[in-house]
Specification:
This is Small ribosomal subunit protein uS14m. One of its GO terms (molecular function) is structural constituent of ribosome. With 107 residues, the protein is mainly alpha-helical. Helices cover 51% and strands 4% of the residues. The protein has 3 helices and 2 strands. Strands 1-2 form a two-stranded antiparallel sheet. The radius of gyration is 30 Å and the shape is flat.
Length: 107
């Protein structure tokens, strides 16, 4: 019984040592990367803080503000990107046979 506990403790100690070693390796790798990219990061920060560059860009110049809208109704929700139309317009046009290659699914 004592022998098993001793083995388990030594195994746990080994695993702890391995984990500590891995943490040290990761930390050293991070330090090397930080040293390697130090100059580049400083240049980027200097560009951001440059007073001669314009301080602000127009808010609408961001890609995140672009919204997909239906080309027929202007509806912003439920728009199929491939067809650029809302689900409502798509259904009416597809059921009337006005969209080439689109048919109702049946199985």
């Amino acid at each position: 019984m004592l022998f098993r506990r001793k083995l388990k403790m030594s195994f746990l100690e080994k695993m702890t040592a391995i984990n500590e070693e891995n943490r040290c390796i990761k930390d050293n790798h991070r330090r090397e990367l930080a040293e390697k990219f130090e100059l580049r990061r400083k240049l980027y920060k200097a560009l951001v803080r440059d007073p001669t560059l314009p301080n602000e860009l127009p808010r609408n110049s961001s890609f995140t503000r672009v919204r997909n809208r239906c080309i027929f109704t202007g509806r912003p929700r439920g728009v199929y990107q491939f067809f650029r139309m809302s689900r409502i317009v798509f259904r009416t046009l597809a059921s009337n046979g006005m969209l080439n290659g689109v048919k109702k699914a049946s199985w």
